[in-house]
Amino acid sequence: MNSLNDEPKAEAITVVLVEDDAPTLGRLQDALTKAGYQVRAAGTLTEARACLAQGAPKVLLTDLQLPDGHGVDLIRETRRRFPDTEIMVISILGDEESVISAITVGATGYLLKDAFPTDIAATVRDLVAGHSPISASIARFIVRRTQNTPEPPPGPALNTAKLTPREIDILWGIAKGFSYAEIASHLGLSRQTVPGHIKNIYRKLEVHTRGEAVFEAVQQGLIKL
Amino acid sequence: MNDHDEDATAEQLPGRERRRLQTSRLAQYLLLQAMIAGACVLALLQSLPGPPAEYQVKAFNLTEAGVERAVTLPYFSPLRNAMNDPPRFTGQFVRPAGEAARSWSVFLPRFTNGVEVTVNDVVILDSRRDPAANRPDRNTPAIAVIPASALRDGDNAIAIRLFIWGPITGFLDRIWVGPDELLRPTYDLRTLVFVTLPVVFSSWQAILAVILGIMWVMRRHEPAYGVLAAAMAVGVAQAFLQTPMGETPFSRLNVILISSAPLESALVLTFALLFSGWKWQRYGWIFFIPGIALALGGLFGNQALSRTLFLVLAVPMVGISLVIMAVVTARSALKRPNVASLLLGCAVTIMLTCWIADLLSVFQMTPNRIFTARLSYSVMLVAIGAGLTWRFARALNQVDGFAGRLVTQVREAEEKLKASFAREEERARAAALARERTRLMRDLHDGLGGQLVSIVALSERGNGSAGIGDAARAALKDLRLVIDSMDDIGGDLMLALGSWRERAMAQLRPHDIALDWRAVTAQGLPVHPELRPWHVIQIVRLLDEAVTNAVKHANARRITVRIETLAGADGLDRGCITVEDDGKGFAITSDGAAAGAIKAARGLRNMRSRAARCGAELELSSCAQGTDRESHQGTRVRLTLPHRFPDSDGAAG
Where in the sequence of chain B do the CATH 3.30.565.10 domains occur? Predict the structure, then answer.
């Protein structure tokens, strides 16, 4: 759990942290700084944009409800300007309402606001290592969207058409609480490939272009051609 | 009037197969009809039994058109009309002595058209007074008792005048004169066959006319029945109206009788055509032209004209109708083999055979003159009756079958509807729940959740307020559980346990306790469609309590969660979740509560109550460290889920 030993070049890793609640911002910043990350903190969307103007961070952690705007816009902008930046959303409840909408604009996973400092550091470390975290409830939300129901369940729009059966199987495994190793052995995969699959899943759920957004809207019945 | 179901077999076959089947059917049909015709010919060749030959009077002198010559009976006269100067037959017969006590009769089995019999110059019979005998198409016999006063022992003279008024030539069959008791049985037999039986059949025809008429009134879209009813009515009129002799005021009515045969045959032909699926066309009136022409001839011409027309129009019309009907019924019997068509076909064959035989006898090509066409018509009546009854019975069966099928289908549809309604209700409920959950989530997210997070953050800043932070964190954890359990997991408890595992791991990580997660059976737990959010909350809180106990009271280093599906003794699958720790354990008192710590005891009581509300069985075992090192140490909570979760919270307690 001690990331200092594992990350000799931790000081090189920059994290932009956007959170409007000052105490929460403080404890998250403490946790990350203690773990050796270089943190640029922001309390509003404007501040966050100013932080990003300084250059591409390795990681962006942002809350969604900000006093002067919505985190989703920030994530979209960052994704467009800095494709290599890993983005995570900071969520109070880890509910799909906020997390899925963040995923569709380019976030990979979420961090709970009340997570223990060690967990906060470990999650960011995994993210930098290329392991996009996914929770059981988010996996559950996605796989339930892959099932054909006459009317889409309430909540944010999500196009799961691009997911392969294997990826859906992996999501089922996560939703049911199986570890990556268990999923890999069930599906006849190598344990190491599971995080890559999850990253792919995130990428496939992301709405990249205007055309895709239109397709999405048609799929969801928001636009009639 | 179509029997589509019987077409199916023939029409589904490929062309060649179908032709082969049709050919074989045609051969079978023709063979059957040939056999029937043969049987008819054999029957017609049989002569009716006659009285003892010794009483037959054979030698006669015939005075015809002023010429006298010796003839033997039966005799075909070339004349068509001889009313004023009828051919006169004179002969002799001998009554032996001692016969005076027995009554003697003259028996004339067959004659056309009328006879006047004189014995010893006493007129004993004039058939013209008997209307039935005046109908040449009926083979009415005549018998007359000779008054005793007119008879004498030895030679007696008998004279017969044969009246002929067309339309056919005259005919006189053999004659018997003898004791009445010897002649009468033969007479009775002929009366039965040629007089009584036609009356019976005419009654039957009358009944058929009524039945078919009713059928047509009730089912106007099937004109075949109406046409047949009309045919039957014409037949009945023909049979029961009497023929007036001579030019009476009523003689014009004769046209009805005269034109009845072609009209009836035209109607029956139309019926046969309609029955075989033909649609009425305007040219169908052609069939009725002979009958109408004959009627007009009778109305505006004299009797002689109408009788002449009869031969030209009526007889061929009957024959042509029969031939067309034979072809049509054969075709429909081939295309749609069914009982009604086959019966009709056989009846037509019989009638056609009899008609040909009649024609032969008219042209004097047979030794006798017994007309059978009218009699054989009764066979057709029987066939029509049988065919109708068969069709009616079959229609009833179909209605029964249809009704049965309908009842089944309605029941099935009803069940489907019920199921779909239940599904729809379930879906609506789930959707409402999901909407409510989304709303609640937003509210909690914006309000309570944020405040709790702030408390956690603030508590970490100050010193000595870790308890507040823990409480806030626990509140957040519980909030997440409540929201999570409201999600529609489709009855798969594994989906709820997946989230629980994450929360439990987050809870255990700071305490450095490992969570060992073992899904023993591949699929985990059985799916419970009846699973409700409140079941999920109870189970997850129960498991939370087990883990919290292990953390707070047992000093455990490792917690193992086993998930499996057990086949119960009753053959029903039950899910089983076991939470086991390697802590120090505690003693359980006899009532199942933990001895010692009041808090732990309350926790155990809570767990039991939660299990009971879900209909699950809770099994607790705990060994104080070191007492039973071999089997296991620490505490084990074993939750056996019910096969079916209870609908209501009734088991609370």
Answer: 489-640
**Mutant choice from B427, B499, B511, B579 vs A, greatest count of A C-beta within 10 A:** B499
> What does the alpha-carbon distance between residue B116 and residue B172 come to, in Å, rounded to a whole number?
12
Percentage of chain B exceeding pLDDT 70: 89
Taking a contact as any Cβ pair under 8 Å apart, which residues of chain A between 5 and 34 contact chain B? 21, 23-24, 26-27
Q: Which of A21, A175, A176 has its CB closest to that of B453?
A: A21
CATH architecture of B53-190: Sandwich (2.60)
CATH 2.60.120.260 residue ranges of chain B are 53-190
User: Which residues on chain A are in Cβ contact (under 8 Å) with B520?
Assistant: none
Q: What is the pLDDT of residue A18?
A: 93
Q: Which helix (H) or strand (E) holds B497?
A: helix B493-508
Subunit contact A140:B500, Cβ cutoff 8 A: no
Please give the residue that has the higher pLDDT: either A108 or B80: A108
- Whether residues A36 and A115 share a domain: the answer is yes
Percent of chain B topping pLDDT 90:
10
Are B479 and A154 a contacting pair at CB < 8 A? no
When pLDDT is cut at 50, 70 and 90, the band that residue B583 belongs to is confident
Query: Do A22 and A122 fall into the same domain?
Result: yes
Closest-CA distance, B574 to chain A, in angstroms, reads 18
CATH number of the domain enclosing A202: 1.10.10.10
Q: Which of these three, A91, A107, A128, is where a domain ends?
A: A128
Residue of B nearest to A151 (CA): B431
Q: What is the dihedral of CA B16, B22, B26, B29, to 10 degrees?
A: 150
User: Closest to A176 (Cβ–Cβ): which among B435, B498, B510?
Assistant: B498
- pLDDT for A144 equals 79
**How far, CA to CA in Å, does B150 sit from each of B100, B101, B129, B342?**
11, 14, 21, 57
Same structural domain, A116 and A16: yes
Hey, are the CB atoms on A114 and B484 less than 8 Å from each other? no
Interchain pair B427, A150: CB under 8 A: yes
Which amino acid type is present at position A155?
G
Order of strands, sheet of B122-126, starting from the edge strand that comes earlier in the sequence: B67-72, B59-64, B88-95, B154-163, B114-119, B122-126
Q: Does A151 touch chain B (CB under 8 A)?
A: yes
> C-alpha distances in angstroms, A58 versus A11, A83, A110, A200, B32?
11, 10, 16, 19, 101
For A171-183, what is the mean pLDDT? 86
Task: Assign residue A29 the CATH number of its domain.
Answer: 3.40.50.2300
Tens digits of residue pLDDT in B277-316: 788 888 888 888 888 888 887 777 776 777 777 778 888 8
Is the CB of B498 less than 8 angstroms away from the CB of A175? yes
pLDDT over threshold 60, residue B615: yes
In chain A, the residue whose alpha carbon lies closest to the alpha carbon of B517 is: A178
Q: In terms of residue numbers, what domain contains A11?
A: 3-128
A153 in the same domain as A103: no
Structure token digits, residue B344: 């009709």
The pLDDT assigned to A2 comes to 43
Question: Is A140 within 8 Å of B519 when comparing Cβ atoms?
Answer: no
Torsional class of B71: left (φ above 0), alpha (ψ -120 to 50), beta (otherwise)? beta
The CATH superfamily holding the domain B489-640 is Histidine kinase-like ATPase, C-terminal domain (3.30.565.10)
